[in-house]
Q: What sequence folds into this?
């Protein structure tokens, strides 16, 4: 077993077990949604990337953030040799290895797929020029064309058709990993801003959902959008237990209060990635000013 990562086992019916290990998330200290799901004899590594905001509050990443990113990077690379499947839901730098990474990201040159590993990748449509270039970089590094996995289902791993990235420009691919009656859905950068994405998640009848939440740290999100996202999250908690919300949501110190309000409003468990993994929340980017001033944690 790789040295980092703690298993969570959600349900055991008819002798089947689905095991989920979240390797990276903002509540774990850095930008990421890297996740391992073990089911049906497969080890599925989803979105193997990590990044830090180069500037937040006018400040560079704090050493504590750099350390957290390094830990996530090590965990991803420790799991990679065991992966039977690698999933790229889209091509942003906190979700994929890169040909020209910054010091906190994962170099594509060192991202060697194990023999026989399947690659399930978002297709070439609805990508920015930068994302298209990164998709091509991965093809060159692996030596094979990336097959479009959108809309496919092999009985264990199902990939959605494209859904909006945060309800605005671009698109992402969601993925469900199943065994028996257990189903883990990884909703990537949907941010609870798309009814279409929620309907697709519901159709998979998930037992656990890991999704990005709304980007409360951005001034561009409106009060109406936040309220609609809150309602979608309540519904999401009703169809899956637990609902794990993180990523964009936890780039704001309001993120934890937001999921607590959700739990009270819906009466169902809503947790951060860190809480799901039994670890303390470390919203380092959200607390960057306090880290540099030496006041965080006092």
A:
């Amino acid at each position: 077993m790789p040295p980092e990562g703690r298993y969570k086992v959600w349900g055991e019916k008819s002798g089947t077990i689905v095991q989920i290990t979240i390797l990276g998330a903002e509540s774990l200290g850095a930008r990421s949604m890297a996740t391992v799901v073990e089911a049906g004899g497969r080890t599925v590594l989803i979105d193997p990337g990590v990044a830090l905001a180069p500037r937040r509050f006018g400040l560079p990443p704090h050493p504590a953030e750099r350390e957290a990113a390094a830990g996530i990077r090590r965990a991803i690379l420790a799991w990679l040799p065991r992966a039977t499947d690698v999933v790229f839901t889209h091509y942003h730098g906190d979700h994929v290895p890169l040909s020209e990474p910054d010091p906190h990201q994962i170099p594509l040159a060192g991202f060697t797929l194990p023999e026989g590993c399947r690659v399930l990748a978002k297709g070439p449509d609805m990508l920015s020029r930068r994302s298209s270039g990164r998709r091509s970089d991965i093809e060159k590094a692996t030596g094979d064309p990336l097959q479009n996995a959108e809309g496919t289902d092999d009985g264990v791993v199902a990939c959605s058709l494209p859904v909006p990235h945060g309800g605005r420009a671009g698109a992402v691919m969601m993925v469900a990993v199943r065994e028996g009656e257990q189903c883990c859905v990884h909703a990537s950068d949907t941010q609870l801003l798309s009814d279409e994405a929620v309907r697709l998640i519901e159709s998979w009848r998930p037992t656990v959902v890991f999704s990005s939440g709304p980007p409360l740290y951005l001034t561009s999100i409106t009060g109406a959008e936040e309220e609609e996202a809150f309602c979608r999250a309540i519904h999401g908690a009703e169809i899956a237990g637990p609902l794990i919300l993180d990523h964009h949501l936890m780039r704001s110190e309001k993120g934890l209060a937001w999921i607590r309000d959700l739990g009270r409003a819906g009466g169902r468990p809503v947790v951060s990635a860190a809480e799901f993994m039994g670890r303390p929340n470390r919203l380092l980017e959200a607390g960057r000013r306090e880290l540099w001033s030496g006041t965080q944690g006092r």
